[in-house]
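Here is my example:
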Amino acid sequence: DIEGKVGHRWYWWVFQSPSVIHYVLDPTRSADVPIAELAEAQGGIVSCDRYSAYKKFVRLHTTFVLAFCWAHQRRDFLELANSYPDLSPWAMTWVDAIADLYHQNGLRLQADPDSVEYAAHHARLQQAVHDLATRRDEALADPRLAFPAAQVLHSMQNHWSGLTVFVEHPWVPMDNNVAERSVRISVVGRKNFYGSGSAWSGQLAATLYSLLMTVKLWGINPRMWLTAYLQACAENGNQPPVDLRPYLP
C-alpha cells in the first residue's frame, strides 16, 4: 500500500525522443509526473495529446511548448460522424482536409530543406493550414451549425496554436502516434502475464521496458545486446563492466 493512494490502479507514462524511450510507472496522472521527469530540461517542444496535465506543465514551465496531436483531432470528427449520422458527410470533409495536411507535410519532408521544391511545399502547407482555420471560423460563425459540430470546432480553435507547431518546426511530428505505439507493448504484456502484482515489480518492468525498447530504437537486437551485456557482467565477477561504452549508442 502507498500512503495517500486509494485503490490499486497505477499509470503508465512514456517519454520518447529520437534516441530514448523512457517509461514511468506512477500512482497518479497529475502534472507532477512530467514536472519531475523533465526537471533538468531547459525547454523544448512536447508532442502530446490534449490531456490537462500537459497544459498545467507548460503553464508552470513557460520555456516548453505543446504540439498537439492531429490524430486526436481527426478522431473527434470520426466520432462525430459515428455518433450523428446526419452530420457524417460534414464531418468527413474535415477528415479529408486533415488528410490533405498530412499529405502536404509529407511532401515537404521528402524534399531537400534547401531546395526550391521544399519552399514551394512549405508555402502550400502554410496556405492549407490558413484555409482550414478560415473555414473553421466561418463555420463557427454560422448560427445554423449543430451544437455537436460546434463543440469539435471549438476544441480545434482552442488548441490551434499547439496543432500548428509542426508548420514552422518541421522536425515535430503532426501526431504522437509513435509514443502511443510504444505504450502498446505494456498492454500486450498485461494480457500475457497479467501485469505487475507489486510496486517493485512494476518499477522493474518500467526500467527493463525503457532499456530494451531504447536498444531496439537504436536498431540493435535486444536479445543479442542483453546476452552480450550479461556475459560481460559474468566475466567481470558478476559486476557491471568497467567500460560501458561498447553497450551505449
The chain has three domains: 1-69+176-218, 70-160, 222-249. The longest strand covers residues 11-16. The CA atoms of residues 60 and 76 lie 28 Å apart. The beta strands are 11-16, 21-26, 44-48, 64-68.
